[in-house]
Specification:
With about 190 residues, the protein is of the alpha+beta class. The chain has helices at about 1-25, 25-35, 40-45, 55-65, 65-70, and strands at about 85-90, 90-95, 105-110, 125-135, 135-140, 145-150, 155, 160-165, 170-180. It contains 5 helices and 9 strands. The radius of gyration is 19 Å and the shape is globular.
Amino acid sequence: MAEEIEDALEAVGPRLRALRKQRGFTLAELSAATGVSESTLSRLESGRRRPNLELLLPLARSYGVPLDDLVGAPRTGDPRIHLKPIHRHGMTFVPLTRRAGGLQAFKMLIPARAEPGEPTPQTHGGYEWLYVLDGRLRLVVGDRDLVLPAGEAAEFDTALPHFLGTADGRAVELLVLFGPQGERAHVRR
C-alpha cells in the first residue's frame, strides 16, 4: 500500500508537466493563474517538491480537470460515463453527447492567460448556442465585440467570423450547443 502511494506521488510531477505543455502554459503564466510560485511549480514538476492539496487544487482549477486526474487516482465504482476531453486551439472541449450528426453538446474550458490575446475569428458551417457557467467570456461575432459574464447566453450563425476567449485573463467555463446549419436550439420561457 505504501509503495502504491509513493508510485502515485512520483507520477504527479511528470503528469503536471505534460498537462502544462499540452495546454501551452509557461511556468510564469501558470504561476499568475494559480498564485503558486514558479519555483514551486518547477519543483513539483521535477519531483523535488511533494504535492499537497494546497498546491494541487489551484492547478486542477486552472487546468479545468478533476483532482483525481492530477494524481492518477483509479476509477471507482462510479456509474457515470467519463468522456474524453478534446484539446483544440488551447481550449478544452468535453463532449456531452455521443451520437454523430445533429445537435452536439460540449462543456468548454478556456484556460486563464496572463494576457487575454488578440481575437482570431474563425468561420464554419453551423449554428451555436452558448451559456457562460463561470468567468467572463469575450465573444466576437462579425463586427460585435461582447463580454458575457456568468449566467448570460448567446446564439449565432457560425458562418459569421467568430471568436471565443477570456475577457479578463481568467479561466472561462461554458456550455456549448452546436448544430448543423439551420438547426437551432429552442428555448421556451
